[in-house]
Amino acid sequence: MTTDETNPPVSQIAKAVERILAEGAIAALITLVEASANIGAKLLVEETGATTGSLDDENLDRAVAEFAKRFLDSSDEAHTFRIAEFAPQLTAWAEVKILCERIEPEPRLVVCGAGHVGASLAHLASFIGYRTTLIDDRAEFVARERFPDERISLVAAASWTAAVREAIGNGRGVSVAVVTRGHNEDEECMQAIITTKADYIGLIGSKRRTNIVLDRLRQAGANEGRLKRVHAPIGLDIGAVTPEEVALAILAEIVAQRRAGKGGSLSAWRRK
Fold first, then answer.
1. Rounded to whole angstroms, how far apart are CA atoms 134 and 153?
2. For the whole prediction, is pTM greater than 0.90?
């Protein structure tokens, strides 16, 4: 039986994982799953390159740590690999198999605006597992009786800017949907969001309306690279009409972004 006393790295890795999640960072946990010895050995590789634990071979650790960077750049949550696939020079380890697992905070969604679309989006996102924060400057719109689901955090904002920035934090694993009631609210939210490192930023509205907001941000000196990453108008084109359908279109795009999906029809190949 593996315990902290018999295998100190297990305790060290557990503490490192706890710290990484608290910091909102990411890492790859590598486990030997097929080998002649040391099955179950683990190596934790952080996005900074820092490592904890070992697979019990210095050259193997080095090659796997380098490969872990590529794994973290992908959208994979877990995948097995043969060493020969990425380090053919390590012939003695060629057939060894490792399991790579992504370590990251649970996905979060910040919804700016608790109108019909925002409310529907919060309910749907919470249902599929997103830790959701719903913000509005109208306290009655974020009253708990409207959202009995305790997994949805409700924020009555005295200031959109302060509330939005606090909800986003460092932005790791965070998607933000701006679905407020007007230009001024949109712009105030976007001014706060555009300086963050949120994984996804979406803005509701027509092409004209969203372009007005983005142009104002550009004139105010917003980073052009960040502006280009804004999904505006927000959501996938599914012909949505009702608030619930619009929420579905928005969440579908957020999931596609997170999972590196293409957002097309899975049966399209049949019609080629």
1. 6
2. no
The secondary structure of residue 231, as a DSSP letter, is: B
Closest by CA position to 246, among listed 256, 229, 234:
234
Asked if the peptide bond before residue 233 counts as cis, ω within 30 degrees of 0, the response is: yes
**In Å, what is the CA distance from 208 to each residue of 98, 113, 158, 237, 262?**
50, 20, 28, 17, 25
* Residue 90: both structure tokens together: 């390590």
Architecture of domain 108-259: 3-Layer(aba) Sandwich (3.40)
* Of the candidates 151, 210, 207, 156, the residue with the CA atom closest to the CA atom of residue 178: 210
Q: Report in angstroms the alpha-carbon separations of 46 from 14, 61, 79, 145.
A: 13, 13, 17, 42
pLDDT tens profile 162-210: 999 999 998 989 999 999 998 899 999 999 999 998 999 999 999 999 9
Dihedrals phi, psi of 59, to nearest 5 degrees: -65, -40
